[in-house]
């Protein structure tokens, strides 16, 4: 049983009691007869050597309702790709690996770039975009889920809960976002969401005024979660950032293209832990430093498309407003952690807020200084209009990589 309520923007399914995963999977196997399901796993090769992914694969082996699994593999040479083929070979589902650094897909990427249609920089968004193209090319899935490959607490019930609202034949949801508590090893985690996104959205409401877009984003319990499911036709029409702004970019496109009645979020786990990014104060291209910069830029771009204009003075005001709100939230988080017997380092929290505040201003300067920047990867609808046979050739390239010699 699930208790759900309409939170004013999107439907929120909050599980008060947990159904056994076997019961969910039995229903999903029935749903799959009408709505075949697939899963996208965007991965770095380094994650194949980490502690999480092998355990995730062990769980996916037991999933009965998936029709295909598509793995986007970044930063892998030939020997590493061959290792990946063996690593994932125990999956019983129709499984294909996109060797994004291999010669066949690099050739297609160069062709798209020659048309001005490629992703200009590597990153998770680019990886997901190519996987989405392959899902469209294969035609095996009408519902597709996506989750990260570094989840240390992974259980296959997470996937079942994520897929259920979109896969159910009586439901009309086109997209489902997962959420979960960010608590692990006695600590309160989720710093970018808690300390940046939440106070930033509230600061933007103060500086820019109330906007339906900001209320919409603020209605998600965990907007930065890397877990979501959608109808496969959603993949054709959305434009997403290539960088760490992927999650905000996807939510923004859905708000533009779909009724809120077609969107929902669901509680998918009692506990969730993954590889934690370092803050990387001294490296603007790494860790939470880069992530916060990309997220801020994604928000500014989307607000601009809705008619919001920004100046240097606006960004300075936003920084000051954000900083005060974030410090107030740290106080509340500290009290919350204390009441629940959790640890929270206020000094580190305030250091993170200082970095994020600085990056809000830096992202604003980058936004103002690069008015011709093409921040979003084109939709697959546009790509197919320009290169009609691109998906067929991508499908052939992936088949050759997975079935033949490389």
* Separation of the first and last Cα atoms: 49 Å
What's the story with the biggest beta sheet? 9 strands, mixed
User: In terms of structural class, how would the helical and strand content be classed?
Assistant: alpha/beta
Total count of strands: 13
Provide the helix percentage: 40-55%
Strand order of the largest sheet: 1-2-12-7-10-6-3-4-5
Radius of gyration: 21 Å
Mean pLDDT, all residues: 91
Enumerate how many helices there are, as a single number: 15
Tell me, what's the shape? globular
Taking pLDDT < 50 over at least 5 consecutive residues as the criterion, the unreliable ranges are 1-7
Binned strand content: 5-15%
Listing every helix as H and every strand as E from the N terminus to the C terminus, the arrangement reads EEHEHEHEHHEHEEEHHEHEHEHHHEHH
Walk me through what this model shows.
By secondary structure, the chain is an alpha/beta fold. The protein is built from 15 helices and 13 strands. A nine-stranded mixed sheet has the order 1-2-12-7-10-6-3-4-5, sandwiched between helices. A two-stranded antiparallel ribbon has the order 8-9. It has a two-stranded antiparallel sheet with strand order 11-13. Strand 8 and strand 9 form a beta hairpin. Helix 7 runs antiparallel to helix 8 and helix 7 packs across helix 12. The N terminus is likely disordered.
